[in-house]
Task: structure prediction
Amino acid sequence: MVYLVPTFRNPTGVTLTEETANKIHNFCVEQNLLIHCDDVYNILYYGEKPPVKLFPVGESNVISAGTFSKLLGPGLRVGWVEAPKEIISKLGSNGMVVSGGCVAQFSSFLIERAITSGDLTRHVKDLRARYTVRWGPS
Result:
């Protein structure tokens, strides 16, 4: 498995070029390696256009994961995964998921409310505006 933060990598803010991403993707396909992309920072882009996802979600070897800890607060240990159906099925068959439980039930409840109320969308827009003022358009 190859772990990458392809967009706005901490602490430098560097984003992989499309050419570099293609080279990494091709190498991983040739070597039968899974790519795990930590893709949360592309949501926090500043400027007018969001960055494109550099690794094609839906490819058999790409998992894109994000966390609400970067969007809402570091104590919220809840995230999401975008991946091919086969991988999602394996993750979804985990005993904790099947039982209806989760590690962070209260945090999950708060996040669900932030999403359904529109508070998360407004918060992310506010963060983008602040980042644009602080660092300028990308």
